[in-house]
Each structure stands twice: as structure tokens, then as C-alpha cells.
Design a protein that fits this description.
By secondary structure, the protein is α+β, with helices and mostly antiparallel strands. It has helices at about 15-20, 45-55; strands at about 25-30, 35-40. A two-stranded antiparallel ribbon has the order 1-2. The two termini are about 20 Å apart.
């Protein structure tokens, strides 16, 4: 909920879980990194990428 903005922030928990965890994606391992590649045609790809970048920009609480 912290990373979502706009209309998505008011979604119920079941709707968020359905849309975020049913995304068409592929986990790719290269060297020591793991990359999550989301499908461009998926309706909520932009929402997931915006939420992850917003979480990365938050300050470290520790």
C-alpha cells in the first residue's frame, strides 16, 4: 500500500493481490543477479514498475 498511488491505493487487499501476483513475468538469473522481466502487454505492468521504483527511492529506516 505504501508504494501504490492514485486509484490503486484504494483497492481492496484481494484485488491488489490478484493484480500484482498474477502478473505475467519471467525470473532470469544472470551471474549473481536476478532480474524480473514483466510482460509489456500485461495491464498492470506499469503499476508494478512504478511501485517498485517508488519503494527503492524510500529512505532506509535503519
Amino acid at each position: 500500500m505504501l508504494a501504490l498511488t492514485g486509484q490503486a491505493r484504494r483497492w481492496e487487499l484481494k484485488k491488489i493481490r490478484l493484480r500484482l501476483f498474477s502478473a505475467a513475468a519471467r525470473l532470469v538469473t544472470t551471474g549473481r543477479r536476478r532480474i524480473l522481466r514483466l510482460a509489456r502487454h500485461w495491464p498492470w505492468t506499469y503499476l508494478i514498475t512504478k511501485a517498485s521504483t517508488r519503494l527503492q527511492t524510500l529512505p532506509n529506516p535503519g
